[in-house]
Specification:
The complex is a heterodimer of chains A (about 400) and B (about 80). Chain A has about 400 residues and is of the alpha/beta class. Chain A has 13 helices and 14 strands. Chain A folds into two domains: about 240 residues, Thiolase/Chalcone synthase (Peroxisomal Thiolase, Chain A, domain 1), CATH 3.40.47; about 150 residues, Peroxisomal Thiolase, Chain A, domain 1 (3-Layer(aba) Sandwich), CATH 3.40.47.10. In chain A, strand 13 and strand 14 form a beta hairpin. Chain B contains five helices and no strands. In chain B, about 65% of the residues lie in helices and about 0% in strands. The chains are: A alpha/beta (about 400), B mainly alpha (about 80).
Chain lengths: ~400, ~80
Amino acid sequence: MSRRVVVTGMGTVNPLALNVRDYWAGLLAGRSGAAPLTLFDTSAFKVTFGAEVKNWKPDGIMDSKVARHIDRFAQFALAAAKEAVVDSGIDFSKEDAFRCGSMVGSGIGGLFTWEEQFTIYKERGPNRLSPFTIPKMIANSASGTISIEHGLMGPNTAVSTACSTAAHAIGDAFHTIKWDLADVMVTGGAEGSITPMGLGGFVACRALSHRNDDPQRASRPFDKDRDGFVLGEGAGVLVLEEYERAVKRGAKIYCEVLACGNTADAYHITAPHPEGLGAGRAMINAVKQAGWNFNDVDYINAHGTSTGLGDKAETLAVKQVFGSHARKLMMSSTKSMIGHLLGASGGVEAIACAMMLKTGLVHPTINLDTPDPDCDLDYVPNHTREKRIHKVLSNSFGFGGHNASLALGAI
Amino acid sequence: MSVEQKVIEIVCEHLAVNKEQVSRTTNFIEDIGADSLDIVELIMELEEEFDIQIPDDQAEKIKTVGEAIDYIERETKKK
């Protein structure tokens, strides 16, 4: 029995805001969350800025003991999940626990913990390692902690597909409800890897923008002068729910999840396929699984990371998939404002899409001053547009060649 | 600050409880909800604070705040 699935709750912690309302206001205003990094001394690094979660204090959001026993990324996840659950209005203590689950992934996992404990090991030996080293490091600790906090005993996994993590998690959670394996799923992604190893590693693989003198203008997807992505952190978590029960309990419904196109490039561990073959097929699969016509798609939330190769390949893929309709649809990049939240990006971007579907406002791609001749679509440059949209795709592509395209529809 | 005061302070901080909930007879697991990992962490913190070593076989015998205080007082006197 195939069932319909809707979004009934959302929560986020990200470089623009600590909740959905302020995040959405920031996106509409075209604000950038990038700034010089404060988490550690970056003087030895070629890149000294990023998009940090500002003023992060877990106190008041979660029990101090819980906060101390989970990594930064899982704190973000738990905070976002709490907001999403409250927003949904679901009281999990009154639900059948085995019909409610969690799938919140992370691209990297507990990198803060890993580095902190490795330093202790190097300086003081193995007997000083914290007993929480492993439970804090593991990438599934977000999903595990959310299930413990909310009493969710249904399906519980943690996707890890680098920058497509959250989109794949939402896709898996969608299928779990669609095929009647659960009724409610808390899903999305979280990342907290702005650490010396995280920053240094991304610098080493030539992925990041070097625009140290102007962080807010550094993430400029589809612009001719783009030079890499801006490392971000945070979490985006959604409550997915079976449609009939959501209607029956009078839930606020943001949008419907209709499909998740899922392919691999099978090409290179960091570079996208130059013709965007895998990305294109992910979009085709999403449109077909959703039962839409290609000409019905009004908007695409681009993966749009602001890298030279990535934005070009994604543009090419959209043109190949949509033909002449590619120039009619709108496509914007949330990452132009919040940077690249890696494993959390698909979650915060799905939230942006849900808000666009609900409000009839399309957020812009900021810093798009000089269009790249190879990027010649309507990227909603620099200003929010008032336009009622009904059918959208949200693209996420990850290192390893993982591609996900979520199909979300107005309800 | 006495050993007792310091131990109680560390217990409160690590297990997120108030000073009023903690006395010498407080059992870590039964009274203030510690689990096995909490206790390992607490023992490490006490070792650090008082600059002593608490071997695993001794640590396993420490079930209450008072037992921790007694053990630490014995060890620090030896030094």
